[in-house]
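To: structure desk
From: M.T.
Subject: fold request, one chain
Message: Could you run this one when you get a chance? Sequence is below, nothing fancy, just the single chain.
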Amino acid sequence: MRPLRGLVRPRPRSGARVTSAALVPLLLAPVLLFLAPAASAAEDVRTEEARVSSGSGADEVELDTTLYLPPDGGPAPAVVLAHGFGGSKQSVAADAEDLAARGYVVLTYSARGFGESTGQIGLNDPRYEIADLSTLIDLLAERDDVELDADGDPRVGVAGGSYGGGVALLGAAYDDRVDAIAPQITWNSLTAALFPSQTGTPDGETIASTPQTPDAGVYKRLWAGLLFGVGSAPTGGLIGGLGGGDDDEGGAAPSAAGQALPDLSSLDPAAVEEALTCGRFRADICAAYQTAGSTGTLTPEIAAVLDRSSPAAVLDRIEAPTLLIQGTQDSLFGLGQADANARGIAANGTPVKVAWYEGGHDGSASDRVTEDLREQVAGWFDFHLRGEGADPGTGFEYPAPTGLGSGLGQVQGGSQTVVADAYPGLEGGEPADRRDVPLTGPTQPVVTPPGGTPGALTTVPGLGALTSALGGSTLEIPGQFAAFESEPLDAAVEVVGAPTVQLAVAAPGGTATLFAKLYDVGPGGATTLPAGLVAPLALTGLSADPTRPTPVEVTLPGIVHRFEAGHTMRVVVSSTDQGFALPAESTVYSVALGGGDLAAGSATLAVPQVDGATQADTGSSRWWVLLAAVAALGLLGWVLALLWGRRRRRQVSHVEPDGEDVPLRFEGVTKAYKDGFVAVRDLSFEVRRGQVLGLLGPNGAGKTTSLRMLMGLIRPTEGRISIFGHAAGPGAPVLSRLGSFVEGTGLQPHLSGRDNLRLYWAATGRPAEDAHMDEAIEVAGLGAALDRPVRRYSQGMRQRVAIAQAMLGLPDLLVLDEPTNGLDPPQIHAMRDVLRSYAATGRTVIVSSHLLSEIEQTCSHVVVMAKGQKIAQGTVEEIVGAGGAVLVGLADEAETDRAIAVLEGLPGVSAGRTDDGLVADLDGYSRAAALQALVAAGIDVDEFTPRRRLEDAFLALVGES
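Reply: Done. Structure tokens follow.
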């Protein structure tokens, strides 16, 4: 993830340690979904402990792992279990024993920065934590007791809750060897989770689709502070890494993590301060949290940190069947986060099943629910990893809605589950059904107090059920909220998902921070806030005139709740909430209902509803009911899994026979988007070894889209792209033979150019000696400037470092998008020589550029595109024209008349004097033969070039298209 930073936290005193120790189980408890297995099964499971190295250079870590081996010895599919934030491999030990007893090889580990593993917390950074997962999968591929799909490719699933759920999603996106995943109560976008703003039109037609205001949000201060506090307590390993060492004796004291801290007196004071401030977090995460905590503002730098570890941007890479489990009692990662994951994964055609349960980060699930979820995860892996059991399908399950509150630390409610055939509104399914509930209420002033104090109390992180346990009421401050109500309901209304409502808001300064929530008000006036959830709103561009407020579409929190007959639905919009960062200055907003008659004060609340079959109390009786279906489908499932496995193995092993001679091949590639726009249409071409191919086309021609598909960043709608004979899908291993520079440098501004190169290579996990760092540094040509921070570089300097970065490891296929942007003429000339020399070694270069003269002088071959289609392909000479007009420069102008006579003596050739000099129209006659005739006649020729340049040919081709 990319956490946020708040106030600098001093080293906790003993009392603070006790508080932290009490909060950690609240973070971990909701994500431990399995129950301990029966003792007899656990006794048959064997374990192997190991320290596994991952990463390289300064980022190399040792991961503390435990392997659980099934009683029958295998070979068997494997499952990697990732733990929640603040936990370790011990957090999932019972789960691992259970799965191993079921016949899986199970690998657990402590993520870097946690437990006994070394390193710093990167919040599931793909360069670190997700690369660590790939290292562990490599380890499984080397074991004889693990089933393989192909050499180096084990049959493997990944499961985990919260932090571990993020590992499952990101791991499946970045490593296509992952065959099935079961992420639980995890995030889609850390930016949206920690800086939420639920305004605007929802992204999809699903029941919990939650919009996010671009580039803005309300900082979730308490949750971020709790998470940072759990990870910031320095460990002995971290302090030792700064110079003290783990062998120091005397002066040691127990840390918050229960480890001994060495004597700090021998350490550098700056190192000590950084360790105590940032704890186990990486420096960039620590800096982001510091900024967020002090300003409460989402900056581009913070967003970059959060987005880096968010599955949102890479969901289209996930092909592993996905079981998404999300809790209804979760103010950290609400139902909207799972909804976004479901939409993004299903849009790629990947099977997705969604299950909501009573529990989450704010309250642990009951034993019955825990048992049911454990069976679901095991059943998902049984079917998708070894083809056993009933097909779990792609349906939707949620707890039967009740109007009950929750007890402290334990979610209560009905024992029934509602099962629907599909998750409403998901790809290809019916949109969510919504019921309109009329609301009324006048325009109301809402006061924001100075500094946001006193503030409303709704949710305590990790204790979201607290207010219900204390009587079902939250604390709203008079004068700080507006309320709009329905009439008492004639019949019960079951809300399953995120309701929407339109408001109208005016603010003197044009901006407002508000919090919307939906209360259940009983006939006697008792109020319940379902799950204690609120929807933060960061509003900008508002009218300052209360008589003409700005309409604002609001999505309320996703909930599962039954509003009984006679109860009232009340929408409350408040200016404060103690869980969030609030504006410092006092002001008064005007809030009204929108979407209707402003004077009448009316609007509608759109409430999502889901039809499904209610299952009986889950337990032994449930399995007797399902036993017949399981038995009937068992054989069919086995046959289908066998056929699927064969098909998958064929796909994995399929390599085009001429692949090594054809580094790149496009075959009928089309990329179309949901709105009907076709960016690339039926594109076919191939590139041979040693070629420098220029990709040309006007803006919007589809060049960058083609390159992004080539790199595996997006998938084609139709067709196939192969690199060295292998399919070039997202995460394909063959992409390791490709170096690229497309759409920006992506350099870390606070690091030097040299450190950026080292960091990039370290993220590949390959040995440092394979980087050919000296050659890359020579390409950059920055001299001493290479050791200055990138933020001080000019655009051209950044460009040169990025190109050098793409050439690290001397990739067999080099792809560059506008490589000469920002370079001066001498640098462009040098770059031209570098690319030609690079291709001369037998490698292949693809260059996309708008500088046609550079393409002409650099490239051997050209593909011209317009409006998403290829309109010409060939060598530069073929595109310009083999014959046509040539400009002849003579060493002696007196020879002009004799040269004209020689040229006109050739079949079909005419020649004459022009303002540009001697021009010959060859009319299809070979340029080489014409030049040879002049030389044979004893005429000294200084210049013999096509009068028609590539630019002329390009303009003609594009115009014709």
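Reply (cont.): The mean pLDDT is 81. Let me know if you need anything else for the meeting.
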